[in-house]
Amino acid sequence: MKFRVYRYDPDKDAAPRMQDYDVTLDPHDRMLLDAIIRLKAQDDTFAFRRSCREGVCGSDAMNIMKTLKEPVELRPLPGLPVIRDLIVDMSQFFKQYHSIKPYLINETPPPEKERLQSPEDREELDGLYECILCACCSTACPSFWWNPDKFVGPAGLLAAYRFIADSRDRATNERLDNLEDPYRLFRCHTIMNCVDVCPKNLNPTRAIAKIREIMVKRAV
Amino acid sequence: MVTRPLRQSVGAHYGWKDWLAQRITAVVMALYTLFLLAVALYNGGFDYAPWIRLFDGTTFRVATLLFGLSLLWHAWIGMRDIWMDYIKPTALRLVLEVVTLIVLFAYAAWLAQVLWERT
Known about the structure:
In chain A, 34% of the residues lie in helices and 10% in strands. Chain A is of the alpha+beta class. In chain A, the strands form two sheets. Chain A has a four-stranded mixed sheet with strand order 2-1-4-3, with no helix packed on it. Chain B is built from four helices and no strands.
């Protein structure tokens, strides 16, 4: 299988370059990741992240051509600083994620066992809690490219709505106040790249629309 | 004296108004366009005489002014979005926003003058 891979070591290289590889596959290889691991065995100077290979950890997000054809082009996620080859610095992404307080806020005394939810309330979280924070969506979003320090980005906003929609959370107004901002939320122009690239088939655009709807409802 | 931002301040408490205004102005423009097309169909096109008759009525002038104001308001939000996306220095962005507003207000005045001009 032929590959064309983005190579860049900011300490040594003046500019990024594309390097060609020919990888011999094993008949049991099923995933593109299998091939990339073989590529790494062939050239151990090539760097990329991976961990669980179960679609849970979100480590191996990278920019792969939309329809696979040889040579398979691999590039790092766009819009984030490259540390080496396909490894990017995710600090800005996680900074935005942390800024929406991605945890339950409820100051009322907790019950003996746990805070219960009705099945209907629990259903509200479907399509929100599954996010693995791979950063595919936020790094595919031009608004995040232009304002990564100010725009929360689709991943962060999906997480924000996950807690706004949670029947056990009590900080809805604070969360909305924090997001009621032309940069934080309203840089989203609904181009839906986020929906297009999400490996878990989630819909950050719909979550953003829901937040906007709640904001308008509480104000109008 | 604080000379550098110690932390990011967020929650400007606007954004949704512009978002809603952009949608409402779009609806106004769409309705006006449909109305204009309907009039054109009814009249069999826009010849000079029906065109003049159309703009003789105050109702149509007001409707056209509303359309124009919707367009300008819509354009203001769109232009400000462009400045917000691409112009990073706050002072320059403010200048560009003010210039945009002045130009759009001038267009509004010009539109009113064109509409109510005695011919």
